[in-house]
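Below: protein 1.
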Amino acid sequence: MTTLSVTTWSLEQTAPTDLRPAAVPEGDVRVVRSEVPSPEFSRFLYASVGGDIRWTDRLGWTYARWQEHLERPGVETWVAYDRGTPAGYVELEAQDEGVVEILYFGLLPAFRGRRIGGHLLSYGVARAWDLADRWPGVKPTTRVWLHTCSKDGEHAMDNYLRRGFRLFDTKVEDEPEVATPGPWPGAYSA
């Protein structure tokens, strides 16, 4: 089996004032919380955004596993729409002691390079900072963190840094190389 050397960077913000919002893109771009847990919709977003950059860890999840994850207190999915069409998403997860992780963030390939990503990330980070306002029993946010890796889009790291995230850890590991799955087999060429 062929392996791929993957660098993973972990980044954080430790105060709401760390966020440096991007400009709102022109046109009819809206960000809306997906409030009804929907395994079908969440899997669509995951596979469509990550299919060309080898997001594979959730592809084998059952419907029940998706449902269980989405129904956990403090898990939120915020979706960017461009003229009514899903363009990308950010998934948040409340963790212990006021920590919120941005589990997934990205755009469908057709919407990349249109200034939607910076706006969506800004919006998602702001929602991470005020997440406890929507979830009774969840501690107020004291830290927002995420990780990105060398398999992610070429502008991912720059977007995170421009939004005010700071690097706190770097790891390099060999991973099995997998074919680019696409949102369905054959959707993207590797």
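Below: protein 2.
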Amino acid sequence: MRVLVVEDEQLLADAVATGLRREAMAVDVVYDGAAALERIGVNDYDVVVLDRDLPLVHGDDVCRKLVELGIPTRVLMLTASGDVSDRVEGLELGADDYLPKPFAFTELIARVRALGRRTSVPLPPVLERAGIKLDPNRREVFRDGKEVQLAPKEFAVLEVLLRSEGAVVSAEQLLEKAWDENTDPFTNVVRVTVMTLRRKLGEPAVIVTVPGSGYRI
């Protein structure tokens, strides 16, 4: 899952991004509304964690722009105000969910994951294919009933492949979904991660390389 965190309090923004990355999400961070609109115009995000009170371009206007463009990205709006009227106003602007500050980080993660499941064709909370069972919420993976310990990027790549439901996923698509924008697009990190993931999942291999196209399960 790829997430954009838009928050002008840099310490909070960076802390949220760090926590989401530990949950195997690819996260980009910006600190104002203008930068958010720029990133949204370049990258495809599953979820935008959007502070409402932003400099340069207000969070409300960022949300309106997403709705205007018809982008399927889900919006989790953050605000220091917990008034019911403010929550209703945020949802009426087009936000998909609303979380007042201060918030419990576990709740933020749960809400981001719930929104991420709604960005495309609805999928079950637990993904299963070819003897592999992946639970994004618990961060657990099993192969034929045996638990497999994966690093965050390995987990993210496996989740993308399982969500594709047998379709081929290119290396570029994996790079976009599992890594943030600071990753060198010419790196071999995708190939290395897939190799490690194959080894950890064991035999028989379930990740198939489609020459010239990418990978599938």
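The helical segments are 10-22, 33-42, 59-69, 84-93, 105-116, 152-163, 171-178, 189-201.
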